[in-house]
User: What shape does this take?
Amino acid sequence: MTFRDTAHLALRNLRQAKLRTTLTTLGVAIGIASLAGMVSLGVGLQDQLVGQFVQSGVFDSITVMPAGPGGRGGFGRGAPFGGRARGAGGRGGRSTSAGAARGTDEPTTPIVAPAPEVPLDEEAVQKLAALPGVKDAYPSISVPVDVTLGDFSETFGATGVPMSSGLEGVFRSMAAGSFFQNGTDDACLLSLDVAKRIDAANPKTLVGQTLTLSYAARGAGTGDPAISNSGAPAVPGPAALMQLRRVTFSCPVVGIVEREASPGPFGGRGVANLMIPLSRAKTIAAENVTNVQSLLRERTVSPKYASVTVKVMHAQATQEVEDRIKEMGFSAFSLNDALQGAKRAFIILDIVLSLIGSIALAVSSLGIMNTMVMSILERTREIGIMKAIGGSDGDIRRIFLVEAAAIGVMGGVAGLLLGWIVGRAINFGANIYIVQQGGTAANLFSLPWWLIGGALGFSIVVSVLAGSYPARRAARLEPMQALRHD
Amino acid sequence: MLNLVETSSLKKHYPMGQTMVRALDGVSLTIAAGEFVALVGTSGSGKSTLLNLIAGLDQATAGTLRVFDQDLATLSRAELSLHRRRNVGIIFQSFNLVSTMSARENVALAMMFAGVPRAEREGRAQLLLESMGLGSRQQHRPRELSGGEQQRVAISRALANQPHLLLADEPTGNLDSRTSRDIMDLLKTLNERDGKTIVFVTHDSQLAERYAHRTVRLLDGAIVTDVPA
Assistant: This one.
């Protein structure tokens, strides 16, 4: 008996019991809809969050710090995670130190290797930038400056922003104004929070106004060893203490940066309060005096940075670059480890959601079994006839299996359609709420091709499994007993 | 002459409640190719049981049963279904047509199991039904046909895979006397013209005497007389 003939008989049988077939198929459809809907929700949420991170530029950046206990411990107050994201940095730090603890099993991990401390200076930054796969490397510099505009006066950390960051998420969609035109002019960006503190009513009108920035500097700028690169290790004399001066310059506001609309679990890329071009921040940092210790300590040949941010070209390359940086003798951290953790969490979420969704499918598989058993009871005599005229056990079994599979196909298609419609409806409703709460509308349900294929395949497999017992029962019927059945 | 069916000490016992029913209790019988044999007996004599065993619809308890030189007891379930498909054509008292299929579909169904391509089986089913005088009734469902017509559809189906042996269990049991004669005449033609070996079960001695070449009488699962006509 050919498969075509088997399918022909099977579909014919299904047509003969339209109502029962429809109801059973509907049962499978609901099962598949709940399963696909749940997984779709899991995938959708994951896409939302992970997508946001990747766009935010967190996952293609590596924070490099000098090796040694000081460098490692310093991550929690890492400069790149300013403002709100600082807490997030702490969280990331915890998960990375867990990663470091795991890494102790591997002797190659540089964190464990007692290497002499490699200075994290300008030369190191150049080397880092030259690594394959690296897009950019820049020191994270934040210098305290006093900001004055009219009556307003407050001290902020001015964060140096490299020109290459202009393409990143936060700077792409600014609340007002634009990113720096070039890296050398005096210009600054404000966070919307700060702008509101300066001018609560019309924060955006600050663009174009000029702030007055000032900071404490040591001595006369010309003789500063940090800038001169003279090579002679100068010893700070008592005179240096006397030579404190106040540097004041005006800085036009070119743009206002808004925070990202929806906070992710890691806070996304933090937005500093006040941002100035990186090169400007470097010069300020070189002569800035924050306290007496820094005054004494910073008289070195070349400034050492507390941390350097390395941007990789692709987020996938993060791990590889991170390993190379560690080989160079620095400690390096990225949120990649945290992302791996998040992905694991999502896998667990997906499993839980699909288990919940599977309950409905399990019920509908019982429905299939019930329908098939009933159908066999009804068609016992017909099965007997088929056997009497030469139908084999296999022929009979295949007819019933194909019937079950057909229910699976129809139920799967209908279920995906149903799941999609319900998902759209929930998404629509949820987005109304999200927008009301000040968030941005998002796609909570994602239906990728693998899920469509997987759900269909699963529907068929479950249906065939549910049909296999009844089909086997039908196949094992004794022809004489089946023929005598009324 | 070639023996199509050979039984010796064939027994079929089955439990019914507390007792054991001895449906067949040592039957030894030989049927040669081309014979037209009537199995006669009262209800419960074992005649239908013997026919079902030869048909491969049921398994014997003891003794040997060779059909087409095959010991049916040694055949697997799959081989038994092949035996039913190729070697025998079975005709029932209650016709046993699939009620949801047309006359032609019923005939074609037997060929479907034999793997005959669709076009060929449709054509052969049509020819068979026409030869039975049912040319205009092919698309009718069994319930739209008279008893005689239904039995002729069933005979067409039994002939579909061109078996040498036709087994008929009370083929006229549900028919009036005139239709019964038509059906028996048809079987006679199949025997005489086409050389089919026919074994039929009946409780009607007159019918057996009129058509069969040989009448085997059973009583309580054993052969009492075996006489040529």
About this structure: The first strand of chain A starts at residue 61 and ends at 66. Chain A is about 55% helix and 15% strand. Chain A has a mean pLDDT of 77.
